[in-house]
Amino acid sequence: MNIIKAEDYNKMSRMAANFIAAQVTLKPDCVLGLATGSSPVGTYQELIRRYESGELDFSRVTSINLDEYKGLSPENDQSYRYFMNTNLFDHINIDKARTHVPNGLEENAEKACADYNALIEQCGGIDLQLLGLGNNGHIGFNEPDASFAKKTHCVDLAASTIEANARFFQSMDEVPRQAYTMGIQSIMQAKKILVIVSGAGKANIVRDAFTGPVTPQVPASILQMHPDVTLIGDKDALSLLQV
Ligand code: F6R
After folding, report:
1. How confident is the model at residue 72 (pLDDT cuts 50, 70, 90)?
2. DSSP three-state, residue 8
3. Domains of the chain and CATH, by start
């Protein structure tokens, strides 16, 4: 695993954008696996800046997002589709028809997941997967569990995740309890994985995930088994790792 320590969130974002930009430049028709949350916002801003300055062309890129809340429409400003549109897709020349997020409005979970698995296969797999890291070690919405879930599935969100997400909703009742998420197998099949982490609050879980035992109780720990993972973190998030 390649571990890169950045001075702060902005530098982490610039380094992560370098990484993604290299992927898009070397393979203009690449498949990017994308994430939402606070970690990638700066990276997306940096990618937008590079697109605007003519350095990057996303016209042939396909994207596949990790997850979506079950029950939220793309127009809901808390849905992950809305997040991706407003934080990235609306500002670059990616073809929206080639941007994919699980269908939160599909009530039939089996169908929603089968459709998404078929889509990932149809796209030929993921060249570069961008990941954030949940406070409990989740990646996508693969929560701590007794085993590693393989493919896209519907999850009951952990209480700590519901609590962490509550800041984005008017009331606790509005926070979705379920989500569709790509599984660990689909994530692990990505050719390259880029994990970004920032803030002292992530220091313990970064240490557990990347130097602790590989266990489904810390889903991100499986990344230790992937042949091409880069972790870019600010110094606070990496403070408990020997880099
Ligand atoms: C988002 C996702 C989540 C987040 C994680 C970290 O699509 O799949 O796993 O990456 O919860 O969130 P932040 O970046 O907000 O700390």
Report:
1. very high
2. coil
3. 2-234 (3.40.50.1360)
